[in-house]
Amino acid sequence: MADNSSGNLTDELTALDFAAVSPQEFARIVKGLSAKQLGEVMHSELRARVLGEVFGRMKQQFRPEAAGPLKALIRWKITGDTDTVYETAIADGACTISEGRSDAEPRTTLVMADAEFLKLVSGNGNPVTMFMMRKLKVAGDVGLASGLTRYFDIPKA
């Protein structure tokens, strides 16, 4: 992925079988892309595939032993050309993911742009720094939001 032209980059990523990419490889891909390139990828037809794959893997990345008796609904709002909402429900040592906004009241809501979301979930972004720079907005339980990384295995690039 050394080629920096967005057309070739998008073509390469379109051909990529995301289901076969390990979390660590995904983290390396994200780390190797500039914010501009991440934006270009997320302004293409790849956006839905990338978001679907990331949220689809959250269940496998979940660490029930770390969550213990936690019961919480986390709403993720990823902003871009269109806003996309996913919800992560943690209860009884399990994690379920759903696309779209439910009627339930979330304990915390995280709002960020596409590139910041990819950096965050790939371990390439520091959530505290992102929050302080207002690239990550948190509504509701800030304490829960600040501890979310311990409930999931975040890949290291």
From TrEMBL:
InterPro entries found in the cross-reference section: SCP2_sterol-bd_dom, SCP2_sterol-bd_dom_sf
Pfam families named among the record's database cross-references: SCP2 (PF02036)
Residue ranges of every copy of the SCP2 domain listed in the record: 63-152
Protein name per UniProt: SCP2 sterol-binding domain-containing protein
Organism in which the protein naturally occurs: Streptomyces poriferorum
Lineage: Bacteria, Bacillati, Actinomycetota, Actinomycetes, Kitasatosporales
